[in-house]
Structures are given as structure tokens and as C-alpha cells.
Amino acid sequence: MDAPSERSRDGDLTPARARELEQKRRTFDVARLFAEKERIAARSRIRQFMFGSLDGLLVPLGVVSGVAGGTANSKIVVIAGAAEAFAGALSMGAGEYLSGKSEAQVQQAAIRDEEEEIAAIPDIERLEIELLFEHEGLSHDDAGLIADKVTSSHRSWVNTMVEKELGLSTEPEGNAVKDSLAMGASYLLASLVPLGPYLFLAVRPAFVVSVVLTIVALFVIGLVKGRLADMSLWRSALEVVVIGAASAAGGYLLGSLIPHLIGT
Fold first, then answer.
1. What is the C-alpha to C-alpha distance for residues 209 and 196, in angstroms, rounded to an integer?
2. How confident is the model at residue 1 (pLDDT cuts 50, 70, 90)?
3. Helix (H/G/I), strand (E/B), else coil: 170
4. For residues 91-106, average pLDDT
5. Residue range 140-155, pLDDT digits in tens
6. What is the distance between the alpha carbons of residues 41 and 34, in angstroms, rounded to a whole number?
């Protein structure tokens, strides 16, 4: 069961992709062109959901499995798991917010520097645009013509320098608050999967159910990841499941070993 790739093995477009592009040609809409960046930005929040969900499954699973390996009291497992779930969700959300804000601030500082350079040394900045286009394969004359056109508009000039020289975008990507909420919420919701069975079952059967449910959830996440990445669904799913299983096994073995090491 592989994901439908946009290209076949010999590099040609698949029939499905060819039909999609033909449909785009027939229904081309200028408004959709300028809305595409917003659509991609919204879709990129999947990264927060994927990251938060994976950690929300694996970290609490390791914790509850480790505690379950050292006690027969399900209440202790639930308390430990719930404490970790809430602390983890807050930590992940705060970390995403701070890292996103910090990254945006660093990028905005670099963009301001570029704008100052354009204002102070426009001749050098124009030369840089010409060299950048030459580096991409254009002839010296063609690169010069494009540089003249680009520098005739301040906005185009700034955007071109920022995107081609710095590899950044002049428009902020994502939303730090929304991204942090997505990360924290996905972590908290995912943590209910490995923790839930301990609310209703004794420790030993709850451990088995917890591991099985987590593996199923990991498999589903792997399928989604494979679909989005246009790769083998089975390979993607198995990759995620193997990592999750290793985490659970490590946590359980550690939880079983520690009581013996400290003599309890």
C-alpha cells in the first residue's frame, strides 16, 4: 500500500498528477494564485500537530510504562502519566511559542539590515542581484536586464534580495500563538491514548492495552506522514511504530529495573 507518487519511477508524471495539472490549466484563477501562500502556511501547521502528537504518544507511553513496570497500583501510574501529560503539553507549547518568536525576530533583524543596505549602497545591492541570477544559470546580459527590472520597484528589490540572498520571506510565516496552541493541544490529546487504559483497568492488562492502542495511533500517524510526504505508507508507518515500540520497551525495562537497583 504505497502513497500515490506525483512522478513515476522514470520521472514522468503519473496519470493522476497529469489530470490534476490539466484541471488547473483549464480552471486557472488569479485569485487562487495569490491565496496559495496562505493555503500552504495553514497546511504547514501539520508540523505542529505531527510533532506534538508523536511526542504526546511516545513520552507519556515511556513514563506510564516505566511506572507500570515498577508498581501494581494503577492510581500511581495515572498520577504520574497525567502530571507528565500536562507538564509536557505546557512545555511543548511554550517551547514552540518562544522558538517561533525568536526565529521571527532574528529573521526580521536580517531583513532590516538588507533594507538598510539597499538604501545606503544600492549599486552594490544591484550588483548582488545580478550575480545571484548569474549563479542560477542566466547569462551575464540576461542577469543584468533582470536586475534592472527588479530594482525598478523597491518592494520587488527587497523581496528578491531577502528571498535569494538570505533564503527568507519578507512576510512572516505561521502564527506563534496558534502554532504553540496546536503543539500543546495535540500533545495533550495524544497523551490520552497511552494513559487512558490505566483509568479503567488493572496495571498489567492496562499496560498491554496501552501499548496496543499507542502502536495503532503511531501507525495511523505514520500513514498520514507518508501520505503528506508522498512516500511509501508502509515504510513511513513502520518507521514511526518501531520508534514508539522501542520507547515503550525502554521505559518498561527501566521502570522494572530501578526498583531492584534501589532495593525496593
1. 9
2. very low
3. coil
4. 84
5. 888 889 888 888 888 8
6. 12
Produce one character per residue of 49-72: b if its CB has 16 or more CB atoms within 10 Å, e if not.
bbbbbbbbbbbbbbbbbbbbbbbe
Pick the closest to residue 62 from 253, 262, 261, 258 (CA basis).
253
* Distance between CA atoms of residues 65 and 245, nearest Å: 11
What 3-state DSSP class applies to 7? strand
CA–CA separation, 255 and 70 (whole Å) = 5
Q: Beta-carbon neighbour count of residue 191 at 10 Å?
A: 28
Residue 247: pLDDT band with limits 50, 70, 90:
low
Residue 16's CB: how many other CB atoms inside 10 A?
11
Q: Which long-range contacts (CB under 8 A, 24 or more apart) does 44-49 make?
A: 44/173, 44/174, 45/174, 45/178, 45/179, 45/182, 46/228, 48/96, 48/179, 48/182, 48/183, 48/186, 49/182, 49/183, 49/186
State how far the alpha carbon of 155 is from the alpha carbons of 105, 114, 120, 159, in Å. 20, 12, 16, 6
Residue 248 has pLDDT above 70, yes or no: no
